Amino acid sequence: MIKAIYPGSFDPITFGHIDIIKRGLEVFDRIIVAVAINIEKRGLFSIEERKSLIRDALKEYSRVTVDSFEGLLVNYVEKVQGNVIIRGLRATSDFEYEFHMASINRHLNDRFDTFFMMTAKDYFFVSARTIKEVAMLGGSVEGLVPVNVERALKSKFQTLMNQGGDINKLDTVL
Ligand code: PNS
To answer: Looking at the whole model, is its pTM more than 0.70?
Structure first.
């Protein structure tokens, strides 16, 4: 049984991530989507909100579970007895950062490897950051994120604006 860990910020989950998960299920028996708790990066959605959006978007996939972790990824993988780490690669610009991260992780713990999957061509330009920016500025993100995420983005930005948020200062949550 191969258990893969798919770590990330998932703020929020996009169809780019979901494409990686669906294709990952063809290769691995189980996938744990692991939301990283990063104290330095507040993000737009809370960790609980992110997990609940992921669970809702992936409820038909019984071999996928959703979790969060704090601290080093390799320690988490060890704790949940994972076998591999999955990461998606959109473009060559992702490569340097991913290569660096995979190398550090292997240095820290050489029992796991990182498997890279190329993002499907339809989602090459999709990143959580650009999704948030487009949604914040009132653009449509239809077809790029699941419907529950679309709704959550709308209501989150609405709430932030209603709380007197200045659109020019909202970039701290991107
Ligand atoms: O979606 P992201 O933001 O590209 O995901 C990055 C993530 C969360 C996978 C990475 O920052 C991570 O593994 N963080 C946990 C801390 C850690 O293990 N750091 C050492 C490797 S750089």
So the answer is: yes
Q: What is the pLDDT of residue 3?
A: 98
Supply the DSSP symbol for 120.
Answer: P
What are the pocket residues of ligand 1 if the criterion is a CB atom closer than 6 Å to any ligand atom? 7-9, 36, 72-73, 101, 104-105
Contact between residue 115 and residue 85 where contact means Cβ atoms under 8 Å apart: yes
Q: What CATH number did the domain enclosing 66 receive?
A: 3.40.50.620
Pocket test for ligand 1, best of 17, 42, 44, 73 (most atoms within 8 A of CB): 73
Provide the pLDDT for residue 93. 81
Cβ-in-10-Å burial (0-12, 13-18, 19+) of 79 comes to: exposed
pLDDT tens sequence across 100-159: 999 999 999 999 999 999 998 889 899 999 999 999 999 999 999 999 999 999 999 988
Q: Which domain holds residue 116?
A: 3-124
Q: How far is the CA of 30 from the centre of ligand 1 (A)?
A: 20
Paired with 59 in beta bridges are none
Grouping H, G, I as helix, E, B as strand and the rest as coil, residue 132 is: helix
Distance CA 54, CA 51 (A): 5
Our count of domains for the chain comes to 1
150 neighbors 142 (Cβ within 8 angstroms): yes
